[in-house]
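Study this:
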Amino acid sequence: MTVTRYRPPPTRSAEAAAGAAPAGAPAGAPEAAGAADCAGGGASSFRHAAEKNAAAARAADASTNRELIRPIDYSPCPAVRLRTASNHKRDRKEGGTRIAAVSCGGDVAILRPFRALRPVPPRAGDVAAVPYDVVSTEEARSIAARNPWSFLHVSRAEIDLPEGAGPYSSEVYRRAAENFERLTRECPLIREAEPSLYLYRLRMGDHQQTGVAGTFSLDDYDADIVRKHERTRRDKEDDRTRHMIALRAQTGPVFLTYRGRSAIDEVVTRATSAPPVNDFVADDGVAHTIWLLDAADTRRLAGEFGRVPLLYIADGHHRAASASRARAELRSRTDHHAPDDASNFFLGVAFPAGQVRILPYNRTVKDLGGRSADDFLAALKKVGPVSEDAPPAPAERGQVSVYLAGRWYGLRLSLGAGAGSAAPLDVSLLQEQILQPLLGIGDVRTDPRIDFVGGGRGTRELEKAVDEGRAAVAFSLFPVEVEDLIRIADAGEIMPPKSTWFEPKLRDGLLVHEI
């Protein structure tokens, strides 16, 4: 079935442009196929449902003679490929040049337009959900309890099973697929007519960042053109791999960053002056705005990204690793492996490094390793100079604020003797000088005595944990910078666990990549 996408007409009223669109739909919004209409095709796949929704929108559009967007002509450059020297890993280690050439017409795209599956505009705010891995099962259940359209019913489907159901049981993935199909039919979700790129803007207070959303090459991921700074856990990979295969879709984007280019900025500035397809403020106060790019800007941005030598994963290492594993699994099921198969690409949003904001990733520890508060304070004074009544948030790198027995102290960390690009980071110094020697915490990933408090929750959350007795001490850190991430990834090294907290965060369910 042919599916058509639409561009909001600039001069017509919302009512005339939308035809029979749902109440509250913005100009040009596709008409939602009603749940009753969809219910008759209960055995249909969600792909058929999405095409039916878009077909209904096309019919409404035809009745008002609205202009259709023609298919994108990608010739003579259907994809932009980065070709790497055969010895690029050795070159990287020795500091040599990694990228041998940039070429058009290759079979692997570093940025590839795709036919997104997305919610109709009136429902976008209801569908959009926090990333699956930033909430517990209980938190997800509470958030989604009064919202049948929340994408948490898909990304954390155990919330719709009896309490006590294992989060990694086969039933969870079956329910996720069922919920995804129901959401597609009844919300509904629609599929873009032609492969396109998008712009995704996040606005939180006075901070704003705008990224390019598309699909990125898993070959480039495997070849380290898409660089990593974090280790992944096998169990978390297993979970998202099974989820992707069950849905045959990637439902949450990987947060990428790159060294900015003025040519990309120019396209973004111009394109964001047009009406967006989605624009809403989430319950946490973050505004999410998405623009659908036309054929010319899609082609232009795809070409410009071919001149970006490297991409860096900021947030979403497990999503990317799982996409690679899902591809391998799907390949094992067939002898046909086309280079342009959707499973060869992962969903991502790439932001210029200058716009990305990293907040502190703070720590609390449940006990003082057998010491009293006075003894622990004395031990801290042997680590470095300690000041009383310090501000809760340290003002510069090398300083850490410590909340102990109802009072804030400032501690100056000394430059450690550790080797490697991550050694000077405050999280590394804290581990080397305090957590390991004073508190006996060797591995922060597995020690149950340590907990982590991300960015936006602020230092008040640290005080609360200690004052309520859930922790004995809290450490407030100066945030890591984006340049630290890039430097460490370029060195082929890994940052300490829980080093970065990116905020604002992308939401799941707004753009879905079917594989």
